[in-house]
Amino acid sequence: MPDGRYSSLVDILQGCDFLTELVQRIEFCLDSTLSLVLDRASKKLEIIRRERRRNIEMLESLLKDTAAKIFLAGGIDNPLVTKRRSRMCVGVKASHKHLMPGGIVLSSSGSGATYFMEPQDAVELNNREVKLSGEERAEELVVLSLLTSMIADSQLKIRNLMDNVLELDLACARGSYALWTNSVRPTFTDSYTISQSDQCNDYSIYIEGIRHPLLLEQSLMAEESTTEASEMPVPLDMWVKKNARIVVISGPNTGGKTATMKTLGLSSLMSKAGIFFPAKGRPRIPWFDQVLADIGDHQVVSVL
């Protein structure tokens, strides 16, 4: 890697355990898109579901035939196969209940004009459907419990992986932000010697052409949402000599004093967080232990 700039990211990647076997096992057993336990997750589950599909086919065929016969006999306006109380049944007018001898009334419509009845021939098939449905759910829980145990056994590795991914994601986010705002990397220093006008001057802060990060962000977002160019915040130059203990910024109202202080405060916090800030050249800034704000007249420049 050139000049070792990416070595720390490479170290993070090399320290990742991606738990390939666990991922493969989960993908073999589950369809994450459908939130479904797959048939192949266990042999028992595959057998149960095959039997259940066969039973449902027979049950639906029986009920469709029954509903069609009731319709032809004038017992319902339209053939109706539905489910009530977890059992498949057909609809029939209350006045034509006799068309289904031995049938069981599971429910009725709000008006009471329609009964939802389970044909006598469907009782055994419905019983089997209820039984197989319960067995299927029980076996799904067995599979999910096994996968949960495997995940629990790997929880430390998973947490470590998540921490590493977070570090990489933050690094990528910082890089994307720097490209978007045309930002540069600052250098922390207690003092910086710079030559200017044939004189040697020591500076603890040396920043050229910096723009308020949040105001710049608003301008860039406005440009992206319209074809017109947006007005950019005014760039600022900040030079503070190393021996200065107090800096007083004076000037008229709306002259930029508050914006300047906030820009420096944000730049300090961004630097400490490893975020480049929008300036020119090679800015230098001290490591401020504290960044405090006490604004008494409720001024607001975006949000600090």
Explained architecture:
The chain is of the alpha+beta class and 304 residues long. Among the domains are: 40-144, MutS, DNA mismatch repair protein, Chain A, domain 3 (Orthogonal Bundle), CATH 1.10.1420; 185-285, P-loop containing nucleotide triphosphate hydrolases (Rossmann fold), CATH 3.40.50. The protein is 44% helix and 18% strand. The protein has 7 helices and 11 strands. It has helices at residues 7-14, 20-29, 43-72, 123-153, 155-181, 213-225, 257-272; strands at 30-31, 36-37, 81-84, 87-93, 104-108, 114-118, 187-188, 192-196, 199-210, 236-241, 280-285. The strands form 3 sheets. Strands 7, 8, 9, 10 and 11 form a 5-stranded mixed sheet that branches. Strands 3-4-6-5 form a 4-stranded antiparallel sheet. Helix 2 (20-29) runs antiparallel to helix 4 (123-153) and helix 3 packs antiparallel against helix 4. The chain is elongated, with a radius of gyration of 36 Å. Residues 191-200 have low confidence and may be disordered.
- Second rung of CATH, namely the architecture of one domain: Orthogonal Bundle
Q: Could you give a short account of the major beta sheet?
A: 5 strands, mixed
Tally of helical segments: 7
Order of helices and strands: HHEEHEEEEHHEEEHEHE
- Number of DSSP strands? 11
Q: Tell me, briefly, the overall form.
A: elongated
Here the CATH topology of one domain equals MutS, DNA mismatch repair protein, Chain A, domain 3
The helix/strand class is: alpha+beta
- Which regions have little confidence, pLDDT < 50, spanning 5+ residues? 191-200
